[in-house]
Amino acid sequence: MPPVRPCFPPQSTPVRHANTQLARTGNRPPRDISSDAQSEAEQQAEQPRAQCPPQSQQAPPQPSSRVPPQTVLADEQPEEEDAFASARRKDIINCLDDAKARNTSLHWRKFNMNARWVQRLLGPGVEIYKVLTYGPYCTEVDGELPALDAHGGQFMKNLKTSQRTKLGRQYELLFHLFPDFETDLEYYAADPDVMESLKKFLTAASDDGRANDCKTLKDGVLNYIPSPPVGTELTVGNTKTARGWMHYSTARFLSPCDMLAEFDEDPEKFCADVLEGRKILEGGEFMAFMYDLDDAGFPTKLDAGLLRSPFLLLVFRHIFTGKSSALKKTPGPAGVGRRPIAVAAKRDRVSPEMIAWAAVMGYYALSSQPNWSVHNGTIDLRVLWDAVLNLFKNSHSVWAVETLQWWNLNVWGPSAVDIDERCQQPQRKTLAEQITEQRAAAQQESNVSD
């Protein structure tokens, strides 16, 4: 049998994204598509959006002082305990081991929905056990932490500074995702069996959330790839193994942006070099699908156009505001069908973690890998996640601020842009206010003249 060769058109030429203006203007995407198909487990009763001045739900959590859960014993319960909090904890503990109880639980639905967000906010392949066990030792806590056993001590000793920082941030983000952990986790930790069940459930639920995103993007992403030359289109009927470096359209998107000229010179040779190991790509590469190629500033300004890709925006919308909103002409959810996951979770601001998740999901959807793994060929998707978040390390930099403004504008609309800052700064007076002041001044002048 002859070897499988990538599918390329003769004399392939670079193809610009048909929807480039979508990301550049935020208000001119093409046609709408079918209704949302998010998992029913993602849905939750809607509550009114917070009024100005709100605190963004995606703001990075600040280090907090908390009693380490491992130090609280079962007989050290507070004398005055809130009845609602006590009922919630008992309900969650009961549901961890009793699947039937989840159908009638008052608290489980929200808990389960938040659990499905774990990988979206903490990163692909996050190890819940390590976050809960060693996270307190990588962040600030109030009180003395118990000594680790020999295995735990060696684990902490072998951690690099960057790994400690990441583990500590994941621990803080977990509390950001589950605010009740501030009071509840110590009770769960008092019983090793409950804590073990909690870790297993969070791992399984976060995998379910990731699997749902992969499933809905598998075919949906084909609507967002630039049209290749006639005769080589990818269709829903194609297997996923026909993507990646086996097809011109996906291969060009997966190429590092600074290597596009080399790819365009000889696409077939470029892909053969990748497939046969002569060209090694790593997770720290920023691929062409992550850039607005019309704004890319190579080689002088490498971050120009980065994370402002029309394709990446469509993938983000597909995941967080619903498939039917991806190609909608205006920002925000489509308002039809099931509520998208960002609306159900009341997350109406874009965070760096959500952008990083869209990049990871976009890469997987474009690749030829049929089943999920954090290792995608030579690319480690955890490294890609970290590389995207590192771009926002200085959250006050001009690039970081403007990039998040761009995302909020294109995902949620003008009302989501710098809402905290706009509430603190003097606002332009409306015409109604100006007319009122003008008339008052005229009346005052008239009274003086009389």
What does this structure look like?
46% of the residues lie in helices and 1% in strands. The protein is mostly helical and 450 residues long. The protein has a two-stranded antiparallel ribbon with strand order 1-2. α5 crosses α7, α9 (192-220) crosses α15 (352-366) and α15 (352-366) packs antiparallel against α16 (381-390). It is globular and about 90 Å long.
Main sheet record: 2 strands, antiparallel
* Number of alpha- plus pi-helical segments: 19
How many E-type strands?
2
The secondary structure category is mainly alpha
Global morphology: globular
Which range best describes the helical content: under 10%, 10-25%, 25-40%, 40-55%, 55-70% or over 70%? 40-55%
Q: Give the SSE order as H and E letters.
A: HHHHHHHHHHHHHHHEEHHHH
Q: Provide the gyration radius in Å.
A: 25 Å
Proportion in β-strands? under 5%
Biggest sheet strand line-up: 1-2
Query: What value does the average pLDDT take?
Result: 80
> How far apart are the termini?
104 Å
In the predicted model, the low-confidence regions spanning at least 5 consecutive residues are 9-67, 69-80, 420-425
